[in-house]
Amino acid sequence: MRKITTSYFLVIFLLLCSCTEKEIIIPPFEPIISDRVVLVEEVTGVRCPNCPSGSAKIASLIEQFPGQVVAVAIHGSFLTSPYAESKYDFRHEAARELENYLKPWEGKPAAFVNRKKFENEPLRSVPEFDLLATYVAQELNEPHQLEISMSTDYDESSRTLEVNLGVIPLVDLSGEYRIHVMLTEDHIIDRQANVGELIEAYEHDHVMRMMLTAFDGDPFESELVANELINTSYSVTIPAEDGSWVADNMNVVVFISDREGGEKIILQTVEEAVVSN
Amino acid sequence: MLLRNWLLLVLLCSSLCLVAQDKGAFSGALQTSVNYFIKDAAIGAINIPQYDQGLIGVDTWLNLSYSFKGYNAGVRLDYFKNSNLLIPTAAYSDQGLGKAFINKRFDKLYVELGYVYGQIGSGIIFRAYEERPLLIDNALVGVKARYDITDNWSASGFVGKQKNQFSLNEGLIKGGSIEGFYATGSDDAPLSFSPGIGLVNRTHSQQTVDRLVNIVKQYIGDERIGLKYNTYLTSIYNSLNYQDLTLYIEYAYKSAEAFRDPISTRTELTGQQTFGKFVNEPGSVLYTSLNFGDAKLGVTVELKRTQNFNFKSDPTLTGAMGLVGFLPPMSRENTYRLTSRYTPTTQDLSERAIQTEIRYRHNKKLSALANFARITDLKDELLYREYFLQFQYKQKRKWLLTAGIQSVNYNQEVFEVKPNVPLVKTITPFAEFLYRFTNKRSLKTEIQYLNTDEDLGSWVYGLAEVGLAPHWLFELSGMYNIDPAKGGDKIFYPTLGAVYNYKTHRVGIRYVKQVEGIVCAGGICRLEPAFSGARFTLNSTF
To answer: Taking the model in full, what pTM does it have?
Structure first.
């Protein structure tokens, strides 16, 4: 018995000695110089109590990487049915299809950074939003391969929007490219579940309102030659205002993805206001 | 890859069978289930790929083991296709080696290599186990050994990385325990002690530390926390037996480590406060149970206090993934459909719980059982309360009547993270009647009624099960929300099934409509969406 007790306390002593381990030094954040713009998509819902925290973290991300992050909030199916007291219904077919297309994800909120699966993440979706900055930084450090320029022309009387795009590959590229065009809206005030409460006047930002292309994008070129400009355009009539669909609060988000090898990786994103200043 | 696995299996099986003809003993077990998903928007069985794309889900486990001259070895092959077990809202497909082991006892020393299972004490600081209904299999891939110091004292140790389906979680886990047995007292009043002490250490990998650093880097000012590579856990436990009385007590302590607290708030760069933050705190669990039992009366009292005891092989893993320890659940494991509808999930950060059960056997025919459970957080907010009373009357071997009533208060806001919902209060009377027409033919009927004004409202459930021993079992049951809350629809959830048993093989097929709810297995619970479809199951041992 004495031997056993002695052995135990010897082991405890040795372990405690190793408890004097020094704390790990946390380095400060350093901005990254890059021409890339990273798309962060969040699957969210008005009945998702953890989603306001997720959205706030994405807002921080935009502040942390000014001009380098574009956010989109997808209200597809799960936890998205409006409350009886809600003013708006953010659901639509393209959002539902896109939410399914982005599966699997473990739950809401979940975010996707350029639709890329990162090392050590079991899925493409990132459930830990505090890691988004790391993955955005990783993406910004990747080589910049493609530039997109965009101009918008909005006619207030007819509510018609013209989107003119120019795509310039910076290197020769070969893949299964698709182009995606979305309309998003900020500053929509409506009900939202939060942890332990319901927020009546929550400000919904980056809400994906419609897609001008198919939910998984329209086919684009498969061979892109460096510095050869490719022009394309889209037009749409924005629905009448009902408290939402406010053109001044809307943005056009355009990105190009590569689906080669079953991937969905996004190469570059651009965002412009519907109503130019 | 799949072909390669199956070829490996066939080769292994053939070689084992050949050797088995010599002297050793070969055994195996096959468990498979096939889910055919049928979309039903009315009950919410939509919006997961299995429904939307008309997929069929398959889960299969094949165990093969062989014993020869004191050596035991085995493998398990797992196959998942469009499975909803890992993530109930997604389709998971993968296959490969789920387990492989070899063990041998050398006199006083027992050694096992491969995928090893086991626990220290009641499992609070370490438990490697498998729970297939939730696809939990957190075996350590490494080595474990136990040495019998004396007839009554043994020391054991283990080291390895935790399994995560077909990969390994980061973080090296090592630990050990010393356990013993000491008897004293007289023949009339025997007294014995079974003490034990356990130690566990987890060392983060550089990758995990990098992830934690990247997370903590986002925290501003004082909200930043310190990080270390190592965390230590210890537990001390003892089981005291005196005549009909057993007292078990265990205290576990975890040194400070970074873990995710979903209700801690932090400040974003924009100034907004958000929920969910890594904190660096020590943790502890105190668990005790007192059992008294004789021929007539049995009493069990359990107490537990838990603080900051979320311990994972990698703290950035979500849900039940990566759990190293196991916290004993503190509510009754109910088996009836409606009495188990609201089951509490064990709270690993803040929980104070008591559970008492009294069993009384009046005579050979009549017995009674009463259970009380109360669970709060450490700020005394009520999470769960249950009163359960059950009587059983047995008329020889002819019939058996079980009847009782259950009352539950369930904090849906905490357990299911649903905002602004009231405490669910239920009253559920239930009855079961089993009648044996002959030794081979029996009929079991159940009727349950759950009354509540909250959540989805009140339910009624009925079941009829015909047994034609030794082969057949037929089941017809239905659950109906007789008084839906919040203006919901009255929906009938039927189940129709048949099971065929032949020797050590069991085949079942069921048509199921199942409401969304908490599904628990071995004390771990999760919210699962509604299910609509057909299920085929096969269990076979050989």
So the answer is: 0.85
